[in-house]
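In response to the reviewer comment on reproducibility (Comment 2.3), we provide here a single inverse folding case reported in full, input and output, so that an independent group could reproduce the run without further information from us. The structure tokens appear first.
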């Protein structure tokens, strides 16, 4: 039987923080727009900021659907499921905002992710989500799966980049500056990393 929670704390927070992967879902306002669902899972890239606020690091990639949808309407759902231990699914429905590298809040927010080298993965934004509805469901049909290890491919690929080459990479990608549906995505040219110009 599912339950609604008033805040992210205690057992619920522990469950969220122990999961190796979570999923984000966003959509544009247009009824015929493209719904986006993304897996997230680099160790240390998610943080609970307070009882109603979470954040995760948004890294270099070949599109920016989540960013575009959040810039348009702010709606987002995060989901975690138990692949080991007792079955459980937790969803946080809320409002999200991409905090870009030139935002004054960026430097303070990035301190919540001490395990991640922001120079390695082409960090382009921090997604901050304010929870409006927090709930869990049984997860009885989610299979058992074992975590083996982190992939190194993303870091191996993007540690070679500096701000200039990363910007050129994004400029070449069709759906980074704008979404599949033509919504504004990642601001380009890419804002410099904090402390750099």
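Designed residues, in position order:
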């Amino acid at each position: 039987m599912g339950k609604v929670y008033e805040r992210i704390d205690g057992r619920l927070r522990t469950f969220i923080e122990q999961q190796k992967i979570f999923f984000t879902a966003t959509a544009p306002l247009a009824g015929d727009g493209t719904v986006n669902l993304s897996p997230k899972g680099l160790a240390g890239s998610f943080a609970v900021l307070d009882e109603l606020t979470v954040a995760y690091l948004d890294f270099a990639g070949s599109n920016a659907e989540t960013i575009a949808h959040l810039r348009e309407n702010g709606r987002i759902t995060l989901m975690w499921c138990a692949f080991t231990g007792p079955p459980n699914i937790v969803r946080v429905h809320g409002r999200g905002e991409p905090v870009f590298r030139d935002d004054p809040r960026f430097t303070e927010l990035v301190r919540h992710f001490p395990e991640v080298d922001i120079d390695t993965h082409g960090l382009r934004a921090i997604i901050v989500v304010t929870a409006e509805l927090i709930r869990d469901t049984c997860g009885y049909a989610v299979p058992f799966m074992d975590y083996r290890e982190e992939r190194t491919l993303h870091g191996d690929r993007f540690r070679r980049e500096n701000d200039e080459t990363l910007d050129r990479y994004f400029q070449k990608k069709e759906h980074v500056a704008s979404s599949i549906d033509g919504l504004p995505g990642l601001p380009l040219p890419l804002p410099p990393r904090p402390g750099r110009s």
